[in-house]
Each structure stands twice: as structure tokens, then as C-alpha cells.
Write a structure and sequence with these properties.
Elements: H1 2-30, E1 33-40, E2 51-54, E3 60-62, E4 68-73, E5 78-82, E6 89-92, E7 101-102, H2 109-112, E8 114-116, E9 121-123, E10 131-133, E11 158-161, E12 172-175, E13 188-191, E14 194-195, E15 211-217, H3 220-223, E16 234-239, E17 245-260, H4 269-282, H5 297-302, H6 308-312, E18 316-328, E19 332-344, E20 351-364, E21 369-381, H7 389-394, E22 429-446, E23 454-473, E24 483-506, E25 509-532, E26 549-572, E27 576-587, E28 597-608, E29 621-635, E30 646-654, E31 657-666, E32 675-688, E33 693-705, E34 708-712, E35 721-725, E36 728-744, E37 748-765, E38 786-789, E39 792-795, E40 814-816, E41 831-835, E42 840-850, E43 853-863, E44 866-868, H8 870-873, E45 913-915, E46 918-929, H9 932-938, E47 940-956, E48 982-993
Parallel strand pairs: 1-7, 13-16
Antiparallel strand pairs: 1-4, 2-3, 2-5, 5-6, 8-9, 10-15, 11-12, 13-14, 15-16, 17-18, 17-48, 18-19, 19-20, 20-21, 21-22, 22-23, 23-24, 24-25, 25-26, 26-27, 27-28, 28-29, 29-32, 30-31, 32-33, 33-36, 34-35, 36-37, 37-42, 38-41, 39-40, 42-43, 43-46, 44-45, 46-47, 47-48
Length: 994
Amino acid sequence: MQKKLLLSLKYMALLAIFVIAGAGHLIAQTVPAEISGTVQDAKGVPIPGVTVKNLTSAKVVVSDGNGRYKIAAAKGESLSYSYIGYTTITQVVASQAVVNVKLQEAGDKTLNDVVVVGYGTQKRSDVTGSVVSVPKARLSQLPVTNVMQALEGAVAGVNVTTTSSVPGKEPATLVRGQNSINANSGPYVVVDGVPLTKTGGSLNDINPNDIASMEILKDASATAIYGTNGSNGVILITTKRGTSGKPVIRYSGYAGLENLAHILTPRSGEEYLQKYADYLKQTNQVQQRPVPNIGELPAYNAGTTTDWVKEATQQGQMQDHNLSISGGSPDVKYFISGDYLNQKGVVKGYQFNRVALRSNLDVNVTSFLTVGTSLFLTSNNYDGGRANLLFATAMSPYGQEYNANGTYAIYPMNPEQLYTNPLLGLNTTQISRTTNINGNGYAEIKFPGALTGLKFRLNAGYTYFPKREGSYIGRLANDMLGTARSFNASTNSYTIENILTYSKDIKKHHFDFTALYSAQERKYNETTAGAVGFINDELGLDNIGAGATQTSASYRDRYGLNSQMGRLFYSYDSRYLLTLTARRDGSSVFGVNTTKYGVFPSAAIGWNISNESFMKNVSLVNNLKLRLSYGKTGNEAIPVYRTITTDGTARSPFNGISTIGVQAGNLGNTSLQWETTKTANIGIDFGILKNRINGSIEAYQNKTSGLLLERSLPIITGYSKVFDNIGKTENRGLELTLNTQNFVGDKFRWETMLVFATNKNKITSLYGDGKDDLGNRWFLGQPISVVYDYKMTGVWQTGEDVSKQDPTAKPGSLKFADLNGDGKITADDRTILGQIAPKWTGGITNTFHYKNVNLSIFIQTAQGMTKNNPDLTYGDETGRRNTPAEIGYWTPENMSQTRPALSYNNTLGYGYASDASYTRIKDVTLSYVFGQSVLDKLHLGSLTVYASGRNLHTFTKWVGWDPENNYFTRGSLDWVNNYPITRTFVFGLNVSLR
């Protein structure tokens, strides 16, 4: 019995071994292996976020930030690779364990792009309003401190002007012209769904390396969803988020040099001496010494000169370093970045430092709940005493820069005291710092079952924005008493948005509905302390209480906005599109006599003509869409409390005692209401020849009424001005965006992007009496900003008869047209000489690709501008200053017809109106993308190196530093910060680790 049992166990063991071996063999044949690889585009650049699907097992994975993926697949199974904008391909798994694929750009990729439209996204083919996406190439590889600098001339209808190159200075931006006269005309900026505008912050606080996409909303259909905030256009910025996969570490950095793009060189020593001699001759004075001032004689006798522009300037430097890490699982995704930017200005003392940190997190808590955050902290530092470039151009080359003890001479041209040493500012203490602490969070619920398609999202944002400024000017800077000033301010803002969306498809019908309720509040406060009269300069700003005379002030205010919005989007068969929007805003800036609320509706229709059946056989046309929109937006962009009459304080002596009194402050208008803009827009989007030529053409008309205009009052009332709802303006324009693929080969490609925009702006009404406002230079039927002056026709020459036109003129005086024919030049002979804003702008970008080498050349132009030229108006101030050699002056010998004599006093205040049109080689970038074989050897995910130059050359008739800059004359607003445009060259690299 025992033997039989052992035999049975033996047979059972053999059977078990056979079964296990067979099963193992079966498992070995059926369990799929792991396939890995990299997904790249045609240029060999890895593509993150590509969906890789096993068509047999339905297993799905997504490529990581380096384009790499891993998926289970057996021999003979098929893998599908798909990504928006690229043609989907299928690969059959053979015996290899590594499958690398390249995706080709789809011909209609722009139609499938997802576009941010405000409180949601849409496919570009479904967009009915005027929404333009900023080319992603403009968001990287350009040495800019503010992202708007990269947009100058690159987006049709968006006029970006770099009025100053001061490090950290923001450019001015207008979308489709200037609608308002006194109220704010800048666009509304939204970052990750939460407003940046009105929180105290600016685009200087946003690191360009963190931006994933940027859209600009231009017409009422697109901007009405933001109501009062959308009247001047809306800029939507979406920052980078994490993706599924292992962590991806990226570094982006550049370093380079800055120089003045054009130097308005002062006269040399010999030219300065000749100018002085000519001045004395023209003013009938006897020359007693070769130089105007005794203090210049030692340098003259020694034969030494000083290049004051060289002394006031330096080699500018610029560097930026950005490090980020992103990744996550299907349920938790993160993006963390840090950025350090340092800019040393070309004028001594000017600098800008920025440190920025960002953390974006998205978490799928459950299948129906997603939460996330967008947190950032930015610290901006503008500290530093600054040299005065205007004074540097005024100094005599024989002026004395230093005293015997090595300190700066206060009056280099002693005893001339009109101009101080341009370097004195370097001896002052100047503090200017801001910090933006911004925390945004969201929670989104997706409803299941019968409510599928319904989502609720809660956005909450909070901003704390402290600002500190301080200065101390002491003895070494020509303040013999010592003056200190400290300024501290903070802005606290919050935004809460409740957003309900519902999406539904019924056969060929598609519906999207969005509803919003939001609240915003901003609280601002500031304190100022100052003192004059310090025993010494040792403590200065650090001990204001030591000053003999103390001053102090404080201020605070509050702003609030409540809003409700509804938007309905409908499409039928992706052919017929309809968007209806209405927003209701209530603002705290308006008075008690009117409602604080305004309603702003809009409607738009679209027709995808290319989707019609009769277009199927038209192979030439790949995309053709017609868009029409009309709507109304509002503008409440006036300071708070302007509806309230307030008084100010004033000190006056009474019986030997300083007494505080009351004086008239602001005259309130309790009837103030919204400034409203009605906008009509028509657009055509097109694509032909397999979309090798594509773009859009748009025409628009904006009519603004009820302007929030600050009108003048008779001073006898005790007030000089008051805000009122009067006046109307109009903007009309045409915009063109054209993209072409000029040549497409295996190794070489050539692409062109062309943008063109024209805008005609005019005032159609002011005070209702049909009259112009001559004092403010506002004229009916003319643009808001014009040059109104005398019409110069030349220069009076020796022997010409001046009696019939300008009896007070002398040879060398400017000659003006006697427009009213009364035989004399008076104020009545002034006329409109031109507009300050450009009549049209444009830009063209040519991009060449050869294998892994890419070259991009961008040329920008602005035409039809006229500006007064301060480089001509300052003259030589009765022979007391140096002047640029480029400008020149009249003599009986050279008989100039453009420049007056040195003796000319310009008693009429002529501004020397000049053509400010220009064409600029804005930027050139050469880059090299390393191929996969090199990356494998270096164990890197991607690597790109590049060299970039900005503001390389300007073609213009303008005589001066630069036609785009606002260069102020001495004594005018912000004249100390005169800072010409700079030319920049940088070398950089973008690299990611595996």
C-alpha cells in the first residue's frame, strides 16, 4: 500500500512538473514584453505628452517631458502614437525592445490647437472672436526681462512700445489703439485664470520661462467675458504644469552684453571750442578766453579732455538662469521652477535683479474631484544711485570730473552752476524694491451619470505686494543739509470665482455653457517719512529721526468689484458657430447718484465654410472660416474716491507758529458712470495649399462714449479739474497675419510669418459744443495724441526779406509758414503736424531650418509717427552747454535750412516736430538642436544652444538717440531716467536631463 502511494505521488509530481513547465512556456509566450522609446518631431526634438496606445490590449501611457515612454506590448501587437497638431501613426511591434518614432506636423494642426479663451478653452476651429496666440518661439531664446518686450511688432493689433530701456522698465502696450483719453488704456492681464492687473503686480513679476502659452483677446466677443476689465483687450497667460512620468529637470540660461544701440556723441574738444567762438560771434560778444568758464582752463591748457558719455556709461551685462523640475503620476502632477535674472545697465548705477520661484500642482483626488495650486514669489530689486546721461551730454570736454581729494567735482564747469556733475547720483543712496507673493488655488468637480458634462470650479487667489522706496542725498551729491525720504506701501488683493460649465453633444449639435460669479477686492496703504538737516551723512536713510525738519504722510484706499457672467457657445456639425456672452459688473469707484453696475453683452457668429460639402472637392482650400462679432465693454479705470469731494491739508505760518489748514483737494462727481466701448469685428481665417499658406484678415471699429474725461474748470471755483462722462472716440483698423511655408525639403525648410496692422484713431466729441480743447491739444476729428505746432519751412538766410512774414526774425532764425496770412507769426499759425501713434505697424519673421540648425530673423517697423524732438529743442542754452555734433547749427557760411543759429532763442517754444518712423532689425537668433545620438552619449533628454541679438540696427530719419524712446528735457517729468535703447547679444542653452 505504501509502495503504491509513493508511486502515485511520483506520478503526481511528474504531472505537476509537466503542467508547471507547460504553463511557464505558455506564460512566456503570452506575457508581453516592455517596449520603450522616444517620440520626436521632424527636427528631432522630443515631444512630451504623446499618447501611446496598445491597440490590442488598450493599454495607454503618455510620453514624459523628454518624449520617452514605456508600455507593455508583445510581438505582432500594434502601437498608436497621437498628439494634437501631429499626424497619428501606427507601429507594429517586432522583436526589438526599443521603438523610436518621429511624428510629422499635421497640415491642419492649427485648427485642432486648444486655445485659452477666458474661463475655459476651445478648439481654434470653434473660436468666433478675435483671439491670437503668441508664437511660442517668441517666449524663449530672447533676452527680455518682460514678456511684452518679445511681442513688440510680432502680433497684429498689439502695439508694444519700449519708451525706455531702463533695466526693469515695463513697455507700454495698446491693443487696437487708444480708446480713452484720461482713463487707463492698458490691457487686462490674467495669469492662470486669476487677474494680475489691479493687484499691484505687473508682468515684470512673471518669469518668461514659466509661460506655456499666451493669448490676446481683442474684440468684444472675446473680451466681454471680462466686462469692465476687457475694454482695452485681455492678455491670458497660462504657466507650465506637470506631466505624468518620471521627473524631468530642465535648465535654461543665457548670458551676454549690452551696449547703447546709438550714441548721440557730444562735440569733441576742438568742435566745442569752435561752437563757443561761433556763439560769441553770432551774439556780438568779444571772446576773452578760448573756453566759456575759468574752471575749464586747466584742462584746456593741459590739452586734456573728458569723454563724459564714456564716464557715465559702462559695459552692460545681462544673465538669466532658470531651473525647473516637473513630472508626476496620472493623479498627481507638479511643476517647480526657480529663476535668477541680473541686469547691469549701460548707464552707471542702473541695475535690475529678479528672483522668482513658482510651484504649480494638480491632484486628482478622486475620479470626480481635482484640486491644484499656482503659487509664485517674485522679488524685484531696482536699487542704486544713478548717473545722469543728459548732464553727461551737456558737460564741456574740458570740465573737471574730480576734486583734488578724489571726490566728484560738483560743478565741473565752475563757476557754471546750471549743470552739476552727471556722476553725483552715484553718491546717493537709492532703494527701490517690490515683492509679489501670489497664491492661487482651485477645486474642480466633474458630475457623473445623468449630469455628465457638468463641472463646477472654484478659483481663489490672494496677492500680497509690498513695495519699499528710500533715498538719501548728502553733501557729496550737492545737498549741504542732507535729505532723506522713506516710502513703504503694500497692496492686499483677493479674487474668488465660482465657475459652472456644462458641455453636451446631441448628434451634430454641440453646446457649451459657462456661468460665473466672482468677487475682487484690493486694499492699499502707504506711509511716507522724510527729513532735512542732518549733522553728517553717516546714517542718512537709516536714521531719519536725526533730521532737523521732519515730514510724514499716510494714505489708504479700498477697491471692490462684484461680477456675474454667462456665456453660451453652440455649434452645428462644426460648420455653424454661435457665441453669446453677457457680464454684469459692479464697481466701487462709482458714486451714489447712479448705479454701480453695468451690463456688457456681446454676440458672435462663425461659419466654417471649408467644412461644407460643396468644399470637399476644392483641394486648394484647407481652411476657410468667416467670423462676425458685436458687443459692448466698459471701462472704470479711474482712481478710487473720485466721486467724493475731499480736502487736503496745508501748513502756513500764523503768529510765528506752523499751523495746519485746509485747502481744496478733489472735486467729486457723484454721477460718474461707465465709459463704454461698442466694438464690431469681421474676420476671415484661411489656409490653402495643404495649409502651407494660412492666416487671418480682420477689420474692426471701436466706438467709445461717456469718456471718463478730466475736464478743466475755472480756477475761481477753487478746483482746476473734475472727472465727467463726456466725449467720444473712435478706432478703426485692419489686421493681417500670414504664415507661409516657402520651401519644405528633407533637410531644409524656410518659413515666414508676416503681421500688419493699421489703426485710425479720432476724437468725435468732447464737451458737446463742437469745439476743440486747445489747451490739452484735443481736436475733433483728429487722433487723441497729435503734434500741434508751427510749420517750419526752413531757416532765414542773410539778405532775405523778413518784413512780410516774420519781422522779428534774423538771419539764422527758424522760418515758419504764415498760415493765416496776416504777415506775422503768431499762435494762430499753429497747425496739426502729425500723430504721435503710428499709422501702421508690421513685422516679418523668416525662419530657416537646415538639419539641426535654425536661424530666425525678425524685422519690425512702425510708420506714420510724428514726435517733438527733445534732442533738438534743448539747443545749447545760451552757449552754456555742449551739444551733439550730429545736430549742428546755422552759420552764414553753411546756410543750414534745418538748424537755427546758436543765437536763436526759440521764443515761440517750437518743438522741432520730426518723423519718428523706423524699421528695426529687432532680433536674430541662431540655434542648434543636438540629435538623439549625441544626447544618448551625454545622457541628456534634450539640448539646444543658441546665440541671439536684439535691436541690431535701426533705419530711420530721426536725429537723436532713438525714435521710440521718450527722452525728456531737463526739468520735465522723469528727466533723470533718460536711458536710450540698448543693443543686446547673448549666448544661451536649454537642456533637460533624463
